[in-house]
Specification:
The complex is a heterodimer of chains A (about 325) and B (about 450).
Chain A: H1 21-43, H2 45-65, H3 79-89, H4 97-109, H5 125-136, H6 177-184, H7 190-195, H8 207-219, H9 226-245, H10 253-258, H11 262-269, H12 280-300, H13 307-324
Chain B: E1 35-36, E2 42-46, E3 56-57, E4 64-65, E5 70-73, E6 82-83, E7 88-97, E8 103-111, H1 132-141, H2 154-158, E9 168-173, H3 182-189, H4 191-205, E10 209-215, H5 219-232, E11 237-241, H6 250-258, E12 273-277, H7 278-290, E13 296-302, E14 310-315, H8 320-326, E15 334-339, E16 346-348, E17 361-366, H9 383-387, H10 394-403, H11 406-411, H12 422-426, H13 433-449
Parallel strand pairs in B: 1-14, 9-10, 9-12, 10-11, 13-17
Antiparallel strand pairs in B: 2-8, 3-5, 4-7, 5-6, 7-8, 13-14, 15-16, 15-17
Helix pairs in contact in B: 3-5, 4-5, 4-7, 10-13
Classes of the chains: A mainly alpha (about 325), B alpha/beta (about 450).
Chain lengths: ~325, ~450
């Protein structure tokens, strides 16, 4: 006789791919570590402190307000940590720590929890947090410091007490390559943009590392390759046409691709699966839309940078794209 | 769009778009030669072992039957005859547990312990002497159904309407389900019968081209069949296909080889293609040449919870418990029993049901292989869309099913889903997508009949 085993009844399939949602979130976070280290290399301790504050805000909010997942503790799926890291990488190194913390709270609270938690939000949570900070603290978020090799000293208004804007520790502050271009038509050397030796947000300095991360994530199939390719190609093409018409007035396509938050946005923010469309056709519309909006805002808009709004606007269009763009089913012409 | 795009590249194997790559687990049994299952005491033969109307019992309790005797006749055109797998005595015609989970009418036969169980049936008229109608009737009388798993009566498929023309006869030796190796072994060990059966069928079909499609993980089958075909000078093309699930689905195979799609709601023959499983064709040869109707089939008994995984030639009606015992029984770790492969197989609550014509494998799995993962919310990553071989939106369908929006599901082509399970396989959030779609399809069908 066959032994009496405990037999489970369920429905096929019984095999499962080993890629799981928490693994995707954690792997994305791991790839951000080199980028964070580059930020520390350029901006010292401040980079680490701002990141810690933003992550703390995200984790605390998720822990107290987030829905318990199948793993129990809502932090274990790794998505809150990822949001905290991404938000931090969009902030300037001299940003007040308390504001970074508040940004993290808003990112998770208003960007994710109120929509119903993981998978339910329409907008990328990290960008919701940043949009809030931009609206609430416009000065602090546009005060930039150059990478100057100071490692231990804190920068700018890092230590401003809660609810205070704070006075800068030193008066040293510069313009980003994008604002220099926009307001004084001075382009930055592409090599500096590529290596990250420029002022800017923590994660928008080193183009090289972001491109390497992009390639890695595409090979690992963690992100959909169409999104970064679509965005970057559109920006290069559109700004290239504009540049060819009037090279003395407009930035080169190389500058447009490497400067500001475009790479960070194209590789990590726009590729957030939750807030991007399902299926290749929709994804092309979405990524080309982001590329067009970025160029429009940067060249003709009032702001020097437009990546955040471009992605948020296309996030908003995603449900509509999903509704109207359907894959052609096998056997139908 | 489909496979033809790659026809130009010689070293690249043909395949369809999308699909998944589950671990194969074939090494457990792909080198095990087919063994013959010893005869057991009692056999249970359900009257429904195929798609269509159940067979009609021709025997009564106490009647003596000989191996290969017809014990039930076809119940309608879409139905086939059923034969005694052993010399013995009918002990009952009543309700018995069926592998589909129901209690259904079946014939019980007690084997004659003193019989040699040699097949002793009068020779059949050779196919060359038959008209097409006689050929079709003969296959129905032989009880032959598709042995790939669906068990669709073969004569219905082979009965090509006058207004349709078969350009292409494709034999399906893909066996894309992980674990299963019965078709593989049949192709290697019954190569001559397979080529012979193909010739018989081709005599009536007159297809312009004949090919045998085999996933590239069975190079020995490819070589053996090429050799067997060359030996008799029969023009058949053996096509290795890329190893990808569900390569063995009819529509996917046609996409891979011809680069054409079968229009929705139509059959392969509407695009001039006839697809048949390789085992079915071997049965065809055995009926005409050896007078043996479909009374036995090759089954893979495997899974890491089976002590001695094997490919076994089993008389129909053999209790699964005896078959698994023959393969050394199961280990303590067994947690799931399946009929068929792990992707589309049907779970069994016990081994108390018999082997039927559609049983391609018995799989006993442990917790390690049944890779259940935690269920998270859908993160709309789109992996299911890129896995679905017929380009559905499983994420959307799963959501609609959860909300009970059956009409919307129909609008999103739920009825076209052939339930291969690729979407559930890839979902990183562990959402039971194909399971929800199955529920949705059942609800849509139910509402239609009301």
């Amino acid at each position: 006789m066959v032994e009496k085993p405990k037999i489970t009844i369920s429905s096929s399939p019984f095999l499962h791919d080993q890629v799981t949602t928490p693994k995707i979130m954690w792997e994305l976070s791991y790839t951000l570590v080199p980028i964070l280290l580059a930020a520390v290399y350029y901006f010292g301790l401040s980079a680490l402190m701002v990141s810690a504050a933003s992550i703390a805000g995200c984790l605390a909010t998720e822990y107290y307000l987030g829905k318990k997942g199948p793993l129990g503790n809502p932090l274990r799926d790794g998505s809150a940590l990822l949001t905290g890291l991404l938000l931090a990488l969009t902030l300037p190194p001299g940003f007040p720590l308390w504001m970074a913390f508040v940004g993290g709270v808003v990112a998770i609270g208003m960007g994710k929890v109120i929509w119903g938690g993981l998978g339910q939000n329409v907008f990328n949570p990290a960008l919701v947090g940043r949009a809030f900070l931009q609206a609430a603290f416009p000065t602090a978020i546009t005060t930039w410091e150059p990478p100057d090799g100071r490692y231990l000293g804190l920068r700018g208004t890092n230590l401003a007490p809660p609810f205070y804007q704070g006075e800068a520790v030193d008066a040293l502050s510069t313009a980003t390559p994008l604002s220099e271009m926009k307001f004084s038509h001075e382009p930055t050397a592409l090599a500096d943009l590529f290596m990250g030796n420029i002022s800017g947000s923590l994660g928008e300095t080193c183009g090289l590392l972001l491109l390497l991360a992009c390639i890695y994530l595409i090979i690992r199939r963690i992100i959909n390759w169409r999104i970064p390719v679509g965005i970057l190609a559109t920006v290069a093409l559109f700004s290239g046409i504009v540049y060819l018409i009037a090279p003395d007035r407009y930035p080169s396509p190389g500058f447009m691709v490497l400067a500001g938050g475009l790479l960070l946005g194209a590789v990590y923010m726009a590729t957030d699966p939750v807030s991007s469309p399902l299926g290749p056709k929709g994804i092309w519309i979405y990524s080309i839309g982001i590329g067009l909006l970025v160029v429009l805002i940067r060249i003709w808009g009032g702001l020097p940078e437009g990546v955040m709004y471009a992605i948020l606007l296309m996030n908003a269009a995603t449900p509509l794209i999903n509704r109207f763009v359907r894959p052609r089913v096998y056997g139908y012409s | 769009m489909t496979g033809t795009a790659q026809n130009g590249l010689k070293d690249k194997l043909l395949t369809f778009r999308h699909g998944v790559h589950p671990e194969e687990f074939k090494e457990l049994s792909n080198h095990q030669r087919i063994e013959r299952m010893p005869f057991v005491e009692e056999y249970t033969l359900p009257l429904l072992q195929h798609i269509g109307a159940p067979s009609k019992a021709l025997v009564h309790k106490g009647q003596r039957v000989r191996r290969g005797d017809k014990i039930a006749d076809a119940g309608s055109f879409v139905s086939v005859a059923l034969h005694a797998p052993v010399d013995g005595t009918v002990t009952d015609v009543g309700l018995y547990g069926h592998p589909n989970g129901q209690m259904l009418p079946a014939i019980r036969i007690k084997a004659d312990p003193f019989s040699t169980q040699q097949l002793d049936q009068p020779p059949q008229r050779q196919p060359e002497e038959l008209s097409k109608a006689e050929f079709i009737a003969a296959i129905q009388q032989a009880g032959i159904v598709g042995l790939g798993g669906a068990a669709f009566p073969a004569h219905v498929k082979f009965n090509i309407p006058e207004d349709k023309h078969c350009r292409y006869l494709m034999l399906n030796g893909c066996e894309c389900e992980p674990f299963l190796t019965c078709d593989h072994r049949v192709m290697v060990e019954y190569a001559e019968e397979l080529i012979d059966g193909t010739r018989i069928l081709q005599h009536f079909i007159q297809a312009e081209k004949v090919s045998i499609a085999i996933e590239a993980n069975k190079p020995d089958a490819v070589a053996t069949l090429r050799e067997a075909a060359a030996k008799v000078g029969f023009p058949v093309e053996v096509v290795p296909l890329k190893v990808k699930y569900p390569q063995g689905a009819e529509k996917m195979m046609i996409s891979a080889i011809l680069g054409e799609e079968v229009p929705a709601g139509r059959l392969p023959i509407d695009v001039g293609v006839l697809v048949s499983n390789v085992g079915t064709i071997v049965a065809l040869s055995q009926y005409f040449r050896q007078s043996q109707p479909l009374i036995e089939r090759v089954i893979t008994v495997t899974g890491t919870a089976v002590r001695r995984p094997a490919n076994v030639l089993v008389p129909l009606g053999t209790p699964m418990r005896d078959l698994v015992e023959f393969c050394g029984g199961v280990t303590e770790e067994a947690t799931r029993i399946l009929l068929g492969g792990p992707m589309m197989g049907i779970v069994q609550k016990s081994l108390d049901t018999p082997v039927v014509k559609g049983t391609s494998g018995i799989l006993v799995l442990t917790e390690r292989e049944v890779q259940d993962i935690d269920t998270f919310s859908c993160i709309r990553c789109g992996r299911c869309l890129e896995a679905c071989p017929i380009f559905l939106n499983p994420a959307r369908l799963g959501l609609l099913a959860r909300k009970g929006l059956w009409d919307d599901m129909e609008d999103y082509n739920a009825m076209d889903c052939f339930e291969c399970g690729s979407c559930s396989y890839v979902c990183p959030s562990g959402i039971p997508l194909v399971q929800s779609i199955k529920v949705g399809k059942a609800m849509i069908r139910e509402r239609k009949t009301k």
